[in-house]
Backbone:
């Protein structure tokens, strides 16, 4: 059940929770199915970062998500945050802002970085650092059609409902895997994106 917008913590309170070690300790480094060690890659995990933008609409804040282009060779048609590999010499914050500019045309001067969440290890061997940032509307997005099919939002209020995400199971590489799913009327929000949202939810709910 969505909490009414006016009952949510204030932006200042949310910023404080995201910078409070006691709140951040409620989230932890997660593997791709939350239950086992992630796969090894030659040379070790690939460092990557994603931007987790919270847009502060007057009618209620939302978390920006993208639907990846169906033409991509990897993770085509899946829901994701803007993001990608951390290039040599970059911080996670710099990489997340650069990727968001490339994928959805977000001006890197606009996001106000609030915090980084614990890393998430994907099933393909990427160690992803989620970078949470605030955005004030109006914000104009110009998605790169070669990477992003569309952008949409998940209401931030949904993250304060502990019963909203559900666990599902599927067979992958000969084993049954558990994964998170967040409810959305049009898109399937699952996998690494859903797990990062679960971590964010745990921090925000305290």
Residues:
């Amino acid at each position: 059940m969505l909490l009414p917008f006016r009952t949510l913590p204030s932006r200042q309170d949310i910023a404080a929770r995201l910078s409070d070690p006691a709140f951040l300790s409620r989230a932890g480094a997660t593997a791709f199915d939350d239950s086992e060690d992630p796969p090894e890659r030659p040379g070790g995990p690939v460092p990557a970062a994603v931007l987790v933008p919270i847009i502060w609409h007057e009618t209620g804040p939302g978390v920006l998500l993208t639907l990846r282009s169906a033409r991509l060779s990897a993770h085509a048609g899946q829901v994701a945050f803007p993001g990608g590999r951390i290039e040599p010499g970059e911080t996670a914050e710099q990489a997340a802002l650069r990727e968001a500019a490339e994928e959805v045309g977000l001006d890197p001067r606009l996001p106000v970085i609030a915090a980084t969440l614990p890393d998430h290890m994907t099933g393909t061997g990427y160690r992803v650092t989620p970078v949470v940032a605030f955005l004030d509307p109006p914000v104009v997005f110009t998605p790169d059609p070669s990477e992003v099919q569309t952008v949409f939002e998940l209401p931030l209020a949904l993250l304060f409902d502990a019963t909203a995400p559900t666990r599902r199971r599927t067979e992958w590489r000969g084993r049954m895997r558990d994964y998170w799913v967040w409810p959305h009327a049009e898109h399937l929000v699952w996998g690494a994106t859903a797990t990062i949202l679960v971590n964010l939810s745990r921090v925000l709910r305290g």
Summary: Residues 50 and 126 are 11 Å apart (CA to CA). The chain has one domain: 5-205. Residues 191-205 form the longest helix (15 residues). The mean pLDDT is 87.
